[in-house]
Amino acid sequence: MNQDFNPLKSKQLFAHPERLSKESAWNEHVPFAMLLVELQRPRVIVELGTHCGVSYCAFCQAVRETGAGASCYAVDTWAGDGHTGPYGGDVYQNLKAHHKQYESFSQLLRMTFDEALQQVPDESVDLLHIDGLHTYEAVKRDYNTWLPKMSERGIILFHDTVVTERGFGVHQLWRELTPSFPHFNFEHGCGLGVLAVGKDQPEAVINFLQTANANASTTRELFSSLGRRVQAEIVLADMGEEKRVLSPLKITCRNLCKLLLLRSGFLRKS
Length: 270
Hints:
This protein is α/β, with parallel strands linked by helices. It contains nine helices and nine strands. The model has no long low-confidence stretch (mean pLDDT 90).
């Protein structure tokens, strides 16, 4: 029997991310990334376009902490593209050093997306994150070539779904795909689209999507607030004030979440 999604029951939603970066546009979606691993418990995770690894390491951290038992693959040339510009050599080396703790279940595949297709069996991927070159033609090709790899529980994440300038075309593909699949779109942090392409989703994922769509504005406000908390951690750490300010900020964030849920009717006062 389906039940409403209750974020206060999640451990990963409020977990402290071990890898963040001032240069990453993904920081504000880390809480959802870790929550999704907790809800879906994917068996195989693939990320196309990893850069400094904020999103990918969030997946890996959640896999380790939940005991999900997933095999994880990050695919990138770590050379850059037309939107990111060229990467310095230190980007890959820095990620590789942090990634050592995940090597028992995770691999960094330094190759093109097409080359990686040969490494992954068809119908095996439960969670795919597409975050490569963001032109319409490129992201549509990534979607079409990797769709056969998706399992019956498959979920695809698209970053930058609300960005319309600089030749970004993810928003266009997102509009084309959403009529065909259960979905939800976060509008903060440049946008993150959640597309449930598999027909046999875990009950926890179904509950989340149903609750999120029934309470779209509240859901977006909640995850945007959690994302701003993560961004605040980066700023505070950079200012050297993390120890003094961060702990009470986390407590305040949890209390704010509870207040939002009470006001929206997700929770009832006891």
